[in-house]
């Protein structure tokens, strides 16, 4: 046992959460990854990936942003001209198809739990 294990309880049965989804990636996500590759982006490096979630009211948008912040996302909330509210969630990730699918699943789950919708993701080219 290492010295930290003497002070911090360890749970040998708890498995760490996977960083990639085992589900089949969405076709739109694969197209966006192909665009990044064509633009010369180094897809083996971490990218700041932005996910966009839209809500009808401010309160659910703030609740969703708070939940995303607890999961280590940086979030901004903005009001749109049509009265909806957009949450932009940013995280650093190596954009593999499995990692992007995992982000999609998280964003869809959170947006659905607060009666919102997931509108996709974007990432800049990283050289």
What does this entry look like structurally?
With 127 residues, the chain is of the alpha+beta class. The chain has a domain of 71 residues. Helices cover 37% and strands 24% of the residues. The chain has a four-stranded antiparallel β-sheet with strand order 2-3-1-4, with helices on one face. The longest helix has 17 residues. The model has no long low-confidence stretch (mean pLDDT 91).
Q: How would the blueprint of this fold be written?
A:
Blueprint: H1 3-7, H2 27-38, E1 47-55, H3 58-70, E2 74-79, E3 85-93, H4 97-113, E4 117-122
Antiparallel strand pairs: 1-3, 1-4, 2-3
Features:
alpha+beta, 127 residues, 4 helices
What fraction strand?
15-25%
Q: Going across the major beta sheet, what is the strand order?
A: 2-3-1-4
Shape: globular
Report low-confidence residues grouped into runs of 5 or more. Answer: none
Helix content: 25-40%
Major sheet details = 4 strands, antiparallel
- Helix count equals 4
- Which structural class is indicated by helix and strand composition? alpha+beta
Estimate the mean pLDDT confidence: 91
* Cα Rg: 17 Å
Q: How many extended strands?
A: 4
What's the end-to-end separation, in Å? 42 Å
Order of helices and strands: HHEHEEHE
């Amino acid at each position: 046992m290492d010295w930290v294990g003497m002070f911090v309880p360890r749970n040998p049965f708890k498995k760490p959460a996977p960083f990639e989804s085992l589900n089949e990636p969405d076709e739109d996500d694969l197209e966006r990854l192909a665009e990044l590759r064509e633009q010369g982006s180094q897809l083996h490096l971490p990218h700041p990936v932005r996910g966009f979630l839209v809500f009808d009211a401010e309160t659910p948008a703030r609740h969703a942003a708070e939940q995303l912040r607890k999961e280590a996302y940086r979030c901004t909330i903005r009001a749109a001209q049509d009265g909806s509210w957009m949450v932009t969630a940013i995280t650093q990730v190596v954009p593999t198809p499995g990692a992007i699918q995992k982000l999609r699943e998280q964003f869809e789950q959170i947006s659905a739990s607060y009666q919102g919708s997931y509108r996709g993701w974007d990432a800049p080219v990283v050289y």
